[in-house]
User: Which sequence fits this backbone?
């Protein structure tokens, strides 16, 4: 069952990560209009953000494998429709925008269902190892997706690239949809949304952590926008090196997470997130490109630790019948703040220069991430520890 989860999540992550690059190249090779590109990408993001809370309700109401099945099949159909249109020589921005919106809406329902699916099929000490393996597979998929999308679009054409994405979603749907879990009923409608919010309010550790994650994602948007501009002085290939060092660091963190004797997993998550202050400060100084690369590798190592620890501790501490609604709030904050950071980075740098926003971001991400250490539940050791060190 674990192998099925890992393969299914890797396929879904790869397909999801292929879409932005494919759509970007389709629009740029077609109209070449930046406004058209913004419309198409926004049409995927906005429905997802709006519908995520309702996706959490659905994930808690119905068996998660069914929700994932229908969500991925819907995304499969939307991507297949884009591929067929492109192969027929039809390239209407309105069509791309509508199909992108369908894709984003389906993602809003599939995203909260995945943590429920993992929690319902993997229990106890095995859950951290499962989340680490899933995190490793999805990270590799996300890292390789832009190169794969570019090669497909330029090599065989954007239509075939979209059809390939559709095939991946179909494979993910039937892989994850074949998992069987026990059905847990939950209330429906507005009461369900309100009860989900009550679950969050009763757990200060979750609310403070998620707010910290939002600050982290916003600051990551600043770094990913200003980083390429500021590191070019070290050579045109320097940014690529920095990104690859970050990838290595993240994979190392994911690999290490289940092998460390972590008795306070929420504290580990907080420290891991706070490490993102290092590359922000390195850019603000500014240090040379190699120093930024090392700092970014450290930051992404922290992220690699955070992801499986967070997935595991939330599944352990949140009732399974509320997990979809609670995690939809987590996803909403993360998905909303990263694009905001990407959007405001250049205007902020133009107004105040690059150093002040980066220094403020470094302090903010460290303070917001570590603030959760003031919550009593975070300082309480887990019993038993999530994972024992491997010899």
Assistant:
């Amino acid at each position: 069952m674990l192998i099925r989860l890992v393969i299914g999540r890797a396929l879904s992550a790869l397909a999801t990560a292929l879409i932005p690059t494919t759509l970007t190249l389709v629009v740029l090779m077609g109209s070449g209009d930046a406004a058209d590109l913004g419309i198409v990408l926004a049409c995927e993001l906005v429905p997802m953000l709006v519908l995520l809370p309702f996706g959490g309700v659905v994930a808690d109401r119905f068996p998660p494998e069914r929700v994932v099945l229908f969500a991925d099949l819907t995304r499969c159909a939307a991507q297949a429709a884009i591929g067929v249109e492109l192969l027929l020589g039809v390239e209407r921005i309105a069509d791309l925008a509508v199909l992108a919106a369908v894709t984003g809406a389906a993602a809003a329902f599939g995203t909260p269902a995945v943590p429920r699916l993992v929690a319902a099929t993997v229990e106890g000490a095995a859950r951290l190892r499962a989340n680490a393996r899933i995190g490793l597979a999805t990270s590799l998929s996300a890292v390789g997706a832009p190169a794969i999308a570019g090669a497909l679009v330029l090599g065989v054409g954007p239509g075939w690239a979209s059809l390939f994405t559709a095939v991946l979603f179909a494979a993910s749907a039937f892989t994850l949809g074949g998992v069987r879990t026990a059905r847990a009923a939950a209330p429906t409608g507005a009461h369900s949304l309100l009860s989900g919010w009550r679950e969050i309010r009763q757990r200060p550790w979750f609310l403070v952590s998620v707010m910290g994650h939002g600050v982290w994602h916003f600051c990551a948007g600043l770094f990913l926008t200003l980083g390429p501009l500021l590191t070019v002085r070290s050579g045109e290939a320097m940014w690529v090196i920095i990104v690859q060092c970050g990838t290595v660091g993240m994979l190392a963190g994911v690999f290490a997470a289940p092998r460390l004797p972590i008795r306070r997993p929420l504290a580990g998550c907080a420290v891991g997130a706070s490490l993102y202050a290092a590359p922000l400060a390195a850019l603000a100084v500014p240090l040379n490109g190699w120093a930024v690369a090392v700092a970014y590798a450290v930051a992404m190592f922290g992220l690699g630790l955070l992801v499986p620890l967070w997935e595991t501790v939330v599944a352990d501490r949140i009732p399974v019948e509320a997990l979809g609604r609670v995690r939809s709030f987590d996803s909403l904050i993360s998905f909303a703040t990263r694009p905001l950071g990407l959007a405001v980075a250049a205007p902020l740098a133009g107004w105040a220069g690059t150093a002040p926003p980066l220094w403020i971001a470094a302090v903010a991400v460290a303070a917001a991430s570590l603030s959760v250490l003031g919550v009593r539940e975070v300082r309480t050791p887990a019993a038993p520890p999530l994972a024992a060190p491997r010899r």
About this structure: The CA atoms of residues 81 and 99 lie 8 Å apart.
